[in-house]
Amino acid sequence: MDALTLIVASGMAATIMAAAMAMLYRASSGAAGLLDWSLAGLLFLASNIVAFGAVVSGRHEILIPAVGNALYVAGHFAIGAGLRRHLGLPPRYGVLAGIAVLVAALHWLPFAQQAVANRLMLFTPIIVAINFSVVRLLWRMPAGPARAAYMPLLCLEVLFMAQMLVRAGYLAIMPETTLTFLGSQALQTVGSLFVLLFLMVAGMSCALIVIRHQELALRKASLTDSLTGWLNRRALHDLASREFARVGRGGHALSFIAFDIDHFKAVNDRHGHSTGDIAIRHVTALAEQALRGYDALFRLGGEEFAVLVTGHGPGELHGIAERVRDLIERTPLYCGDKSIAMTVSIGLATCAPADTSWEDALRRADGALYQSKREGRNRVTPCPMVRLHAVAA
Ligand SMILES: Nc1nc2c(ncn2[C@@H]2O[C@H](COP(=O)(O)OP(=O)(O)OP(=O)(O)O)[C@@H](O)[C@H]2O)c(=O)[nH]1
């Protein structure tokens, strides 16, 4: 296939990648990695412009492939840099500067100047190493809802790496193969088509990563309370419904620890609303400390909270709630030179066979909580059914 046509097509694909990533960067209020991926598109475009100029002018000085190949290698590196930045790692452009200078300088080796095939064999390990570092990062992504979004880029990088190695291997075992500078031999045409495919799919794969990441962040924000980091009522509905269905299928006991800060209005009135916010975070942090890491924690509103506990009998549930109450009572909030004593009132309830919904149990836990308030606050009250079991335990 005509080399000039492929260079123009690759240049167009690189331009689309650069523009799409830049536009997505603006639309996503500056998501990490997109500018690096836009830069990758620009570097590939620049390498195509150099190649285009060489074909059109017919000039073959070694400086032309030196610059073109350095830009091309930099394009591959920038894809990894974007991924690193997206994952919160430094992009390492200092390393890129070193690699680009090395790639350019290698063109003045007599081996590289002897034949185009030699240059291809010389630069294949460098490009494959860059692709491999991207694959390694992608492969190590933890399992979870975001992982699938990284797979298209991983497959693309593996495919690209494989074709580079096959082409270099072929040249190594067929030393009589002759390639001309920016020629249209089958081996070069195949390589150019892979570059074209890479540029077309890389942009889409990177966009997919960002879009999925933002979708998950939005979903998390919609289910989380921003002050405490605890889940909100909406999340409670999803999670408790799922757990209640599990209980119905013969799973473990499902219980609620509902609690409310005592005389919280007085904290706000005496110390101000922002100290009130600090006090809420203080109480939730202590509750987290007293609970096990795997209980689901919810802020239901204002200074009302609930913990969804699975797999514990009434006696153990009472013990857990007492630990929370005790730690909060023993740990006043220090704010400057002020010490603010805090306590919570707690109610407990476990889902019963007659319950038609988890909300029945939460309602009972709420009733028990208000009984704690009526009986003087700073105490744990199991709802009557739980209390009966607790006596038996
Ligand atoms: N600082 C702060 N205060 C809040 C927040 N949400 C609710 N509140 C306040 O919490 C207080 C709750 O007051 P009450 O419902 O009267 O309860 P209380 O003073 O704790 O009294 P008892 O519950 O009966 O012990 C109100 O003053 C609300 O304004 C919040 O996010 N931050």
Automatic annotation (TrEMBL):
It comes from the Bacteria. It catalyses: 2 GTP = 3',3'-c-di-GMP + 2 diphosphate. GO terms for molecular function: diguanylate cyclase activity. The chain crosses the membrane at residues 6-25, 37-56, 62-81, 93-111, 117-139, 151-173, 193-211. It is an enzyme of class 2 (transferase). The keyword Transmembrane applies. Residues 252-385 form the GGDEF domain. Its EC number is 2.7.7.65. This is diguanylate cyclase. The keyword Transmembrane helix applies. The lineage of its organism: Bacteria, Pseudomonadati, Pseudomonadota, Betaproteobacteria, Burkholderiales. Keywords: Membrane, Transmembrane, Transmembrane helix.
